[in-house]
Every structure is written in C-alpha cells, then in structure tokens.
Design a protein that fits this description.
The chain is an alpha/beta fold. The chain contains 13 helices and 13 strands. Strands 1-2-3-4-5-7-10-11 form an eight-stranded parallel beta barrel, surrounded by seven helices. A three-stranded mixed β-sheet has the order 6-8-9, covered by helices on one side.
C-alpha cells in the first residue's frame, strides 16, 4: 500500500497509556515507594498524575470522539493484588468497567498486564527473580482473565521486558558496588533476569489461554535501532542488539502477536553505546529525532519472528513541546509504516504514544501526548495533532 491507500480491514488505529503514568496515587506499587524514598534521583514523584483513575470515561470519550478505534491501556497489578493473595474486588471491578467502557465506545481494548510497576510486596520478595515469580504472575493473569478481560482480544503480558531487564541489572550493579555515570550505558541485562522474564511471560500466556482461548497473547518489545558511528563498530552493534532486544523478540515466537515500540535510534561505537553527537537534532528526552525508526523496527521484528506472526505498533511518538513537530515526526513515521505494509509486513495496528501528556518515569517535562492535561484542574485539551491523527484514523489511512 502507499501511505494514501486504505488500511486493511480491522486495522487498529488509536493511542496508548500506562496505568502508573496517568492514574495517580498508585500507593502500593514499587515505583511509588521508590518515588518517595529519601535521596531518590527522580526530579518529581507521580502524585495525582492525570487523575485518570477517576477520569478514564472522559479520556475514552475524547479518543473515540477524535475518530480512533482502539485504546491500549494497562491494568495495575499493585491495585488488584495490593497484599499477596488478597485480590481487591473494587480494583477488579474498576478495570472491568474500563474494558466495558472501551467496548461501548467502539474502542478495541489492548490491555497490558504489567507496565513497569509491580506490587511492593512482590518486589520486596525478590521480584522477577523470586522462585515463585512466574507462578505468582500467572495467578494474577488468570484472575485478570476471569474478572476483567471478557471481550478483550489483545493482551500484552509485559511491557518492554528488554528495558525491564536492563533496569534490574543497573539497579543491581549500583546497589552492589556502584557504577560511574559513564558506565551505566554499558551495563547489560543479566541472563538471570532475562530468562526470568521469559518464564513469567510464558507462564502468564499459558494461564490466559487456559482461562479464555479467545484471548490473543503477546508482549511488547522496545526496538532500539542501534547503528554504528565508528569504523569497526558493526560487531558491537550486532552484539548489543542480540543481548538487549533480539532475545526478547525471539522469545515471542509461538505467541499470537508481538508489540513493536519505536521512537529513535541509538549510536554505537567500537566499545559500546555513545552519546548522541553534538549538533544532532534531539527531543525533550535527549533522543535523536529519527522518525524512520518505526519502519526499520517493524521490518526487523518481522524478520526475527517470521512472516506468520502479526505485529502491533503499540508505542511510537515524540517528546516535544512543539505540536507541529509532533505532526511532522508522526507523518514520517507513518510513511515508513505504510511502506512496510506495502512490502507485506503483517502489521495489524498503530497505537500512538501517548494519548495524554503524563508522568514519564521521574518527570512531567517530556510531553508525548496528543492531549494536554492541566496539572491543577486536570482539564484535557486535544492538541492539533490529536485532531489530525484522529482524522486519519477515521478515514482509515496513514496520510
């Protein structure tokens, strides 16, 4: 297809969010505890976030009213099981109402079970490396299937396990002996945490399928788009891609689908990752402005998992205060996606990050949202990009 051709029937065109980043007051989670810790390096805590725990109907009304047909959101394990073995009927009912609300508005819900945050009790017991971690995660997945997910098709078990694995290894290194600031980028995900996440994903997927065979299960992987910037760095690029991305993508073989999440590309020298060069155009996050990442990511993912596995773009966007830049970036990203579709890559949907300006894991400064949120009143204001992208969704095209 060209970017102006009609999208395949059933193509999901919407936006994404994550519970901790928009709901507010996720007080039984490990991230909340980390935010409150004395000496935390985070610039600011999440606090009320966008108050979407109470305002989700308004958020869904906006999304549907703009012309979108899908909404990716996460449910919060820390709210559902705030104490080990004690499941909150109120939290389960809350997330069930969200699923029903999405369906009633014509939005296909794409539900993520774990988006970076964990119950504090789970983290304190060893997190993903605890002997019973996979079993506990599978029990949570089964409970979600029974109480929340009726009518849902796409379920993601874990968001960006490759980023989770590196975060774990970085924390471990710093705790055990410290690490100089320049060494952080060279810390690799440990084999123990990598395999623990794969085990948890597979256990949860099996529990979901057993509870409801209609569910389509997968997980979402951050595509890093490493590229060499020094002679002889090609081997380093290949090794980094293998450890930090490919092993997680390949673990999805046998799933019903895989999520692709792409924003930028990462420069690599002979000895490992290097900072973005001076003078290169960057975003608020300090990432290179590189909309071509999306097309490259879906092609690379498809090559790794094979032609028979459907892909969903579950995150793609830009942190910018200039909404015209957001439109320009997304226009180029969608052109790359259209080219991949034309060449036969089986992409079933595009879910923009993010619906709302939200808490970006330490700061509200990086604004990814199609919709602005007033931090005092929580008033939502759709940006021009929201109307532009919604029109494309309504008309079923990428340009």
């Amino acid at each position: 297809m060209t970017s102006h051709e009609a999208l395949p029937e059933g193509f999901l065109f919407g936006a994404s969010t994550a519970a901790h980043q928009i709901e507010g007051n996720n007080t039984t989670s490990d991230w909340w505890a980390f935010e409150q810790r004395t000496g935390s390096f985070l610039p600011e805590p999440s606090g009320d976030a966008a108050d979407s725990f109470h305002r989700w109907p308004e958020d869904m009304d906006l999304l549907a009213g703009l012309g979108f047909n899908a909404y990716r959101f996460s449910i919060e394990w820390a709210r559902i099981e705030p104490v080990r073995g004690r499941f909150s009927r109120a939290a389960l009912a809350h997330y069930r109402a969200m699923v029903e609300g999405a369906l009633a508005r014509g939005l296909t819900p794409v539900v993520t079970l774990q988006h970076f945050t964990l119950p504090q009790w789970f983290a304190e017991a060893g997190g993903w490396l605890a002997p019973d971690a996979a079993e506990l995660f599978a029990r949570y997945a089964a409970t979600a299937a029974a109480e929340v997910l009726d009518g849902v098709r796409y379920v993601a078990t874990v968001n960006e396990p490759n980023i989770l694995a590196r975060m774990h290894s970085i924390r471990q290194r710093v705790t055990e002996g410290g690490a100089a600031e320049g060494d952080i980028d060279r810390i690799e995900p440990g084999e123990d945490i990598t395999q623990a996440l794969v085990r948890a994903h597979r256990a949860a997927s099996a529990a979901l399928r057993e509870a409801d065979p209609r569910l389509l299960t997968g997980w979402t992987v951050a595509s890093l788009c490493f590229y060499p910037v020094e002679p002889g760095a090609e081997a380093t690029v290949a090794a980094l891609a293998r450890r930090r991305e490919d092993v997680f993508t390949e673990a999805a073989r046998g799933d019903d689908w895989i999520g692709v999440q792409a924003y930028t590309r990462a420069p690599v020298g002979v000895d490992g990752p290097v900072p973005v060069a001076d003078g290169v155009r960057t975003t608020i996050k300090g990432w290179e402005y590189y909309p071509q990442a999306l097309g490259e990511a879906v092609r690379r993912t498809a090559a790794l998992v094979g032609p028979d596995m459907p892909l969903l773009v579950t995150e793609n966007g830009i942190a910018t205060a200039d909404d015209t830049e957001r439109i320009a970036y997304t226009t180029e990203a969608l052109a790359g996606l259209a080219a991949a579709l034309r060449d036969g890559v089986d992409v079933r949907g595009y879910l923009h990050w993010s619906l709302l300006d939200n808490y970006e894991w330490g700061s509200y400064r990086p604004t990814f949202g199609l919709v602005a949120v007033d931090p005092e009143t929580f008033e939502r204001t759709p940006k021009p990009s929201a109307h532009w992208l919604g029109a494309l969704a309504r008309e079923g095209r990428l340009a």
